[in-house]
Design brief:
By secondary structure, the chain is α+β, with helices and mostly antiparallel strands. Helix content is 27%, strand content 31%. The strands form 3 sheets. It has a 5-stranded mixed β-barrel with strand order 1-3-4-6-5.
Length: 343
């Protein structure tokens, strides 16, 4: 975990935080609401966090984040005890006259009771029971969590993924076999919103996202972030490209892209040289949650997909395999290689 930028709850509630900026928030879980479906068929849920001064901030979790946080909380020891969470990369949003924060596609990450100094400030209040209205949601039976995470609608093998005719989030399991860094291993991001930034004719870094202050003011701070394309395969020998971004890469290797680039430049190397640390992903198997894009993947047939999250947890991998086998009635002989693949 690197470079948290914690926003003050009061500043968010008072509308002092620009909605174009990515921010981080930390607070004690006060309430978790149910999953609801919007008029546009999108799913979301609202949680409420409380800071050290007692200010309460609402956070809208959009799909696929609707089940990730409650599931993580339900598996922790002492479910009756309050929990502190860090939500990384959210944006302020005004809804029905009230300022809140909301999760963002491919950027938001949850950290439950992380080992950072700011969490220790909450310790005196953590011995008190969590509100009953949050416990009703936190204590989710395992079967319900599994059904929300992986179902017939969103489980795919890699070969299934390539033939998929529906946009959305899907779970697949595969092994990373190679790095495809023909387009580089990082991108220059805007500090304010994480979108791509470019150097202007005047030599200043400018955000490419028109709604961002870094575009409007024609100046921003550039931060290199990971954008790594991996070749991924499974026992069917089908191969696809998965693009993994900054927050997911830093779950498995420590240096940030900025630190890595600075190290390369210090050694007078070529900034396009692939860092050795990325070799740690080669020949490793992961459960991937990927996004199938309506235009690029479904309509145009691209086999390059954006990764929302990835996990090397063997239990999750076997749950995926068990559900895939059960739902699609795959014969045991046909999944033997996959079992060996996972183990």
């Amino acid at each position: 975990m690197h470079g948290f930028r914690f926003a003050d709850f009061k500043d968010v509630i008072d509308g002092k935080v620009p909605g174009t900026h990515y921010i981080d928030v930390i607070g004690k879980v006060y309430e978790i609401g149910p999953i609801i479906e919007t008029t546009h068929k999108h799913k979301c849920r609202t949680i409420k966090l409380e800071d050290l001064e007692g200010n309460q901030l609402c956070c809208t979790l959009w799909e696929p984040h609707t089940v990730e946080l409650p599931a993580a909380l339900s598996k922790l020891p002492n479910p009756d005890q309050s929990k502190v969470i860090v939500i990384q990369c959210v944006q302020a949003k005004r809804f029905e006259g009230v300022w809140r924060v909301q999760t963002t596609f491919n950027a938001t990450v949850f950290h439950v009771n992380p080992d950072i100094p700011q969490v220790k400030d909450f310790e005196p209040s953590l011995s008190t029971p969590a509100p009953s209205n949050s416990l009703q949601i936190i204590e989710i039976p395992d079967d319900d969590v599994d059904d929300d995470y992986m179902s017939r609608e969103n489980i795919r093998s890699i070969s299934d993924l390539k033939e998929n005719e529906k946009a959305g989030y899907f779970y697949t399991y595969g092994k990373i076999v190679n790095l495809d860094c023909t387009a580089g291993w990082y991108y220059d991001s805007c500090k304010l919103c994480w979108s791509k930034c470019i150097k202007s004719d005047k030599g200043k870094w400018v955000c490419t996202r028109e709604q961002c202050d870094g575009y409007i003011n024609r100046v921003t701070t550039r931060i290199p972030r990971y954008q790594v394309k991996f070749e991924v395969t499974d026992p069917s020998d089908d191969c696809v490209h998965f693009v993994v971004f900054d927050t997911q890469i830093n779950q498995f290797i420590t240096p940030t892209a900025a630190e890595m680039l600075a190290k390369i430049e210090e050694l007078a190397g070529d900034k396009e040289d692939i860092p050795r640390e990325l070799d740690a992903f080669i020949d490793k198997s992961f459960l991937f949650k990927v996004y199938v894009h309506e235009k690029f993947n479904v309509s145009q047939g691209s086999t390059s997909y954006t990764v929302s999250t990835l996990s090397d947890d063997a239990d999750l991998a076997n749950k995926w395999l068990s559900k895939y086998t059960e739902m699609f009635k795959v014969e045991h002989s046909k999944i033997k290689n996959t079992l060996n693949f996972i183990n």
